[in-house]
Every structure is written in structure tokens, then in C-alpha cells.
Amino acid sequence: MNNVLELRQLWQIIRKHFLSIVVMAVIGAAVGFSIAKFVIAPTYSASTSMLVNRAADDTSNATANLSDQQADVQLINTYKNLIISSNVLGTVSKQLQNPEPIVVQEAKDAVYKTLADGTQRLVTPAQKRITKPSTQKKYKLSVDELKDMVTISSQQNSQVFSINVKSKDSKLAADVANEVADVFKDKIGGFMKINNVSIIDSAKASKQPVAPNVKLFTLAGLVILGGLTFLYMLVKELSDTTIKSPDEVSEAFGMTNLGVIGHVKPIKHFSMSPKVEVSTSDNNNRTPRSRLSRLDHD
GO:BP terms for this protein (predicted)? Predict the structure, then answer.
């Protein structure tokens, strides 16, 4: 028998089990959707953009400025390493645990006016620094946990880079991104000769998760379970060596088909003993009649 699988046979297998394949594919898609939607916790992302320029002399010309810009682009990798350093993230961890109070009024010294005789007159009294407790939620995160959450990305030939934070909590992701940007802005001057650090965009909490991808999980479930069902049906059909038609007998053994004998159901009990029947034409004349009968006994 020819074991080569032809396209016609493959199409016949698909047509024969098409409904089963479709049903299992739909079940797989439902399972993938359920896992992505209800089993895996969603992950949120928040990012803030920053621009850092090195200090430049006033006497520098346009060529020097262009050279400085190219140097700033090359230094972005250095900024990345500084941001995820223990020095910066350690400070971020402390400030997230104990947020700084909000300054309502800055402290101001008293202002005096000197009179002609040398005496001073108070013009504006001194003002104390007034603060109120921070409304920011407190987070207890270690440096290692922050390193796992924070990534830095940048575009080619651009001085702008982004601080990206991923977390299961959208508000936490935004707070960490903004705190990292603020701490880096305060500390970069101590690391390098920097005179211009700008936070372009502040991070905001997003309601749309970045993972898991529900559409991708649904498609993966559909393809995987539908494909496995098709492979199972294909293997089952190819491994089935039973003869299903007279043509297969002629092809396998080279015999000529002379006819087909139908299936005969066997009789459970058959008796050859005669059974006497009495014909009652009248009460006085009885003629016995015998015949073979089939007796069924349960």
C-alpha cells in the first residue's frame, strides 16, 4: 500500500475532521484569552524624558557646539549607568520610604532699611519655611528591586533619553519614574560637569497595561490547540491500517473483486425439533400438522 501522503489525502483528512479542528481551536483561543485576562497579573509602564547638556564656554563657536552635542549623545550610555547605580537608586529607595514634605512657603530673611543716622528699620519681617506632609504614597523597595524595574532607552543621535519603569501597580511605576528623574537631576552635577538638566515629560499613571498581550495570547491558544488537534487527527489517520473499501483490497493484494458479501447477524438459538400445530376445523376432527420452528429462549 502506498504510504506517501498526497495533498488530496491531506485535504480529505482536513475535511473529515474540520469541525473538530475548529472547535478545539476556539477552545484554545478561549483558554489563551482567559489566561491573559484573569490569570496573569497585568504589568503597567511609566516613563519620563530627560535632556542633559554639558557645560559650555561662552566663547565656543558653532563647530564646538556641534562637537559638544555629539559628545553628549555618546555620554548617554554613561548617564544610563549612573541612573541605575546604587548611589542614585539608594537615594530613590530612601525617599520613596520617606517622601519629602511639600513646601508651602520658602524661608525668607528679614529685610531692613538703613536710615541716614545709621539705624535700620525693619521693612519685611522674616518668614519661616512652611511645609505640609507629602501626599505621595510610601513604598518600601530595595535597590535590587528598583534595578529590576528601571530601564533606560534612547533614540539614535538624540540627546533625549527616557527613564522607563514597569510594575504591577500603575501609580507605583509613575512615582518611581519621577523620583528617579528628580534624584538624578540633583546628583548629576556632583558626578560630571553638567549645567543643564531638564525633565521634558513627567511620568503619569497609565490605565492601559503593557503586558500580557491579550490578542497575542488568544492567537497563540488558537494556533497551538488547533494545530495539535490537526496533528493528532493526521497521525491517527496515517497509523490506521484497517481496510475500509474493496478497492483497497485489490490494491494491496492484487486480487480481482468478484463481489461483496453483506454482514449476516448470527442467530443465538436454533432448534430442529418439530412443533405440532392442531388445525381445529371442528371440535371432533383435529388434524395434526408439524413443521420445523425456530425457538428463541432468553
Answer: polysaccharide biosynthetic process
Closest CA to 47 of 200, 213, 211: 200
CATH number at residue 87: 3.30.70
B/e letters for 74-92, b = 16+ CB within 10 Å, e = fewer, are ebbeebbebbbeeebbebb
Query: Which structural domain range is residue 128 located in?
Result: 102-134
pTM (2 d.p.): 0.66
Contacts of residue 140, defined as CB under 8 A and 6 or more positions apart, other chains included, come to 96, 97
Could you report the per-residue pLDDT of 8-59, keeping only the tens digit for each?
A: 778 888 888 999 999 999 999 999 999 999 999 999 999 999 988 765 555 4
The residues, any chain, with a CB within 8 Å of residue 198's CB and separated by 6 or more, are 50, 51, 52
Let me know if residue 237 belongs to a domain. yes
For residues 161 and 198, membership in a common domain is answered with yes
Residue 68 buriedness (CB in 10 A; 0-12 / 13-18 / 19+)? middle
What pairs with residue 277 in β-bridges?
289
Residue 265: inside a domain:
no
Domain membership of residue 217 (yes or no) is: yes
Q: Is the pLDDT of residue 160 over 50?
A: yes
- Total domain count, the chain: 3
If asked whether residues 114 and 204 sit together in one domain, one would say: no
Co-location of 189 and 217 in the same domain: no
Instruction: Specify the pLDDT at position 146.
Output: 95
